[in-house]
What we know:
The chain has strands at residues 8-11, 20-27, 32-35, 40-45, 48-51, 59-62, 65-70, 73-74, 78-81, 88-89, 91-98, 101-108. By secondary structure, it is an all-beta fold. The site of zinc ion has 8 residues, from loops.
Amino acid sequence: MKVHKGDLVQVLSGKDRGKRGRVIDARPAERRVIVENLNVAKRHTKPRPVRDTSRMGGAAIIPGGIIEKPMPLEVSNVMVVCPTCNQATRVGITIMEGKDGTVRRRVCKQDGCGEVIDR
Ligand SMILES: [Zn+2]
C-alpha cells in the first residue's frame, strides 16, 4: 500500500474532502486507513450502570455521551501529502542503494519535486 501509518494525507471525497490528517492506522488487507479526527462517526450512548464487583454495594455508572470514532477511509480516497512541497501527490516507488542493499522509497510525483517521502 502506498499510504502508511504516520503519513499526512489529504481526503479526496466525502464530507471531509480537502481536509488533512495523520494516518493513525493502516489496514492493507482492507485497503483502508484510519485518519486522525477525520471521517468521524458520532455515536450517542446512554449512561448505564454496571454491576459492582467490589461488593461495596451500589452500582458504578458508565457516563453517557457522544463518542467520536474515526471510521476507515478507502486508500483510493486519500492522497499522501508530500513533506517537501506540501502538496497532495501521487506516490511513486524508487529503488535506492542503501547500506544494507537495495531499499524501496516512496517519492513525490509532483512536477519539480520528486523528493523522497519516507524519512
Ligand atoms: Zn513533493
